[in-house]
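Long-time lurker. I teach an intro course on protein structure, and each term I like to show students one example going from raw sequence to a predicted 3D structure in token notation. This year I'd like something fresh instead of my usual example. Would anyone be willing to generate the tokens for the chain below so I can use it in lecture? Attribution to the forum is fine with me.
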Amino acid sequence: MPLTFDDLVRRARALPRDGRRALLGLAGSPGAGKSTLAERLVRELNGSGEPWVAYVPMDGFHLADAELERLGLRDRKGAPDTFDAAGYAALLARLREGAHAGDTVYAPGFERVLEQPIAGAVPVPPTARLVVTEGNYLLLDSGAWARVRPLLDEVWFCELPEPERVGRLVARHERFGKTHQEAQAWVTRSDQPNAELVAASRGRADLLVRTDQV
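-- Reply from a regular --
Happy to contribute to a lecture. Here you go:
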């Protein structure tokens, strides 16, 4: 039987054990529905009571456009080397320790209209027993990205039929200011090579999730 959203909620709820904080990662290609699923999970798990689940997207670790220009990577924005992977891994390690230390940990956010990271935008209080994080490259095993997977209790790989995934991606780029032609060109030139790289990492996931079925 295919997984249901309730199955995922139960599995996520069971991750924190022995009084320690758990970290759940949602990986997948661009446009696969990772952030939508993460937000649904966090909303459902928190319910109407005291929030105990936090959401920390990987997108806050995009390098700023000024730095991408300096590095000559502006036209490759979104590729693995256009993120601060080491910084993201360091944050995950700190999130593991933060609950025990009683600290609120501040993570960077990402402003989609500006397409820029924003420092200190996402507070994770010490009362958070589960942190849900999502991003394309959680399962990569090269460079600083290889530090990420060991810090996560589970990683679920989000999948979507390719025509729907690409269509959603084009529509997203249009929503944030690109023309239809510009959006299609960016998906073909930049997003699709990244998607192929991410898809090759799916075998390292603990669970495969069809986001159009949950």
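Some talking points for your students: Residues 79 and 193 are 8 Å apart (CA to CA). The mean pLDDT is 92.
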